[in-house]
TrEMBL record:
Database matches in PANTHER family: AMINO ACID IMPORT ATP-BINDING PROTEIN (PTHR43166), GLUTAMATE_ASPARTATE IMPORT ATP-BINDING PROTEIN GLTL (PTHR43166:SF9)
UniProt name for this protein: Glutamate/aspartate ABC transporter ATP-binding protein GltL
InterPro entries cross-referenced by the UniProt entry: MetN_ABC_transporter-like, P-loop_NTPase
Membrane topology summary: Peripheral membrane protein
Keyword list, A-Z: ATP-binding, Cell membrane, Membrane, Nucleotide-binding, Transport
Protein family membership: Belongs to the ABC transporter superfamily.
Classification via Gene3D superfamilies: P-loop containing nucleotide triphosphate hydrolases
Molecular function as annotated in GO: ATP binding
Domain of life of the source: Bacteria
GO cellular component terms attached to this protein's record: plasma membrane
Subcellular location: Cell membrane
Length: 100
């Protein structure tokens, strides 16, 4: 509902802070589907998320933070595709989430 309200204002950019937190699995998929559609339509979005599959699908750029500090700032292809070149913290994170 919040996404629909925001879209009624015809924004040029949307900000999302963990849009799927505290949602049941069915609602998570619905929200992510809407956001994927928005991305395909060219909506600029800045999104804080732990949904890496979603980030990998729609992001142009990944900013990876650890303890409030930016550790990585690169294109998604570089972040998800060139793991050896990532920081130690990013490698640890990616090694845990890319195997599932």
């Amino acid at each position: 509902m919040a996404i629909a309200r925001a879209l009624s204002m015809d924004p040029i950019c949307m900000l999302f802070d963990e849009p799927t937190s505290a949602l049941d699995p069915e609602m998570v998929n619905e929200v992510l589907d809407v956001m994927v559609q928005l991305a395909q339509e060219g909506m600029t979005m800045m999104c804080v998320t732990h949904e890496m599959g979603f980030a990998r699908k729609v992001a142009n750029r990944v900013i990876f933070m650890d303890q409030g500090k930016i550790v990585e700032d690169c294109a998604k292809e570089e972040f998800f595709g060139n793991i050896e070149a990532r920081s130690e913290r990013a490698r640890q994170f990616l090694s845990k989430i890319l195997h599932h």
